[in-house]
Write a structure and sequence with these properties.
single chain; 261 residues; alpha+beta; Arc Repressor Mutant, subunit A; Beta-Lactamase; three-stranded antiparallel sheet; 8 helices; 9 strands; 20% strand; DNA-binding; WH-like_DNA-bd_sf; HTH_MetabolicPath_Reg; DNA-binding IclR family transcriptional regulator
Length: 261
């Protein structure tokens, strides 16, 4: 009986979410609608339609139009759209900067975004000293073993970090930080200095440095990194390389509408 009740409750919640999304879709297509009109379109009771728009209004996803009893899309939708747009624009706005960084540093430069529990590279430029021509675009890499992943994780929402650190961290090499407490300590350092690094943590012979890219709201939505063989991109190069990446990331961020606090 308990399982049946739970299943019924889950189905009801899914139906409510689906109806709420239908409300947003209707308002996007029709502009303004009243509760009665929404109820008719959704084939539900007027009270159900009212509960849906009330819940969406609390999240600023819809708003009332004066005192006419009509509703339209709210500013919360713009925030959601801006987050998606920023991720799509970062490749376009970052290409010129990454080309220049790759030329100046002589290493492979990537831009990566977070996708669930991984970092995904969306842009790649090769430096003139690059000896590795592997294509990283579209490849999912673990957050805890890459410089871009550490940046994305360090600047992510606290609940995202907590969830990630609660999972087993696979040791990919003997240098991988697989202890959650040690990783958390390093993430705090990353937020403090503004960049992250890895030394043969994803693969033996591969090192990397990364810096955060922000959208117009100041949220970190991507990381720009330089990677190369450990015999060339040595630890003593991390700071000067990081300085160039931080400047480059700031330029990309400004192109996305962020001009600092």
């Amino acid at each position: 009986m308990a399982e049946t009740t739970r299943a019924g409750g889950d189905a009801s919640q899914v139906q409510s979410v689906d109806r709420a999304l239908m409300v947003l879709d209707l308002l996007a297509r029709r502009g303004e609608l009243g509760v009665t009109e929404l109820a008719t379109e959704l084939a539900v009771h007027k009270s159900t339609a009212f509960r849906l728009v009330t819940a969406l209004e609390r999240r600023d996803l819809v708003q009332q139009v004066g005192d006419r009893g009509k509703y339209r899309l709210g500013l919360g939708v713009l925030r959601l759209a801006a987050a998606t747009t920023g991720r799509l624009e970062v490749s376009r706005e970052g290409r010129e900067v990454c080309e220049r960084l790759a030329h100046e540093l002589g290493e492979t430069v990537n831009i990566a975004i977070m996708d669930d529990d991984s970092a995904v590279n969306v842009l790649q430029e090769y430096g003139n000293a690059s000896v590795m021509t592997r294509n990283w675009i579209g490849r999912r890499t673990p957050l805890h073993a890459t410089s871009s992943g550490k940046v994305l994780l360090a600047f992510a929402d606290g609940s995202v970090r907590k969830h990630f650190l609660s999972m087993p961290l696979e040791p990919l090499t003997e240098n991988t930080l697989s202890d959650p407490d040690e990783l958390l300590t390093e993430l705090v350092e990353v937020t403090g200095r503004g960049w992250a690094s890895t030394y043969e943590e994803l693969e033996i012979g591969l090192t990397a440095v990364a810096a955060p890219v922000r959208d117009g709201s100041g949220q970190v939505i991507a990381a720009v990194s330089a990677s190369g063989p450990s015999f060339r991109l040595t630890r003593d190069r991390f700071e000067p390389v990081a300085a160039r990446l931080v400047d480059g990331a700031a330029e990309i961020s400004s192109r996305l509408g962020y001009f600092g606090a």
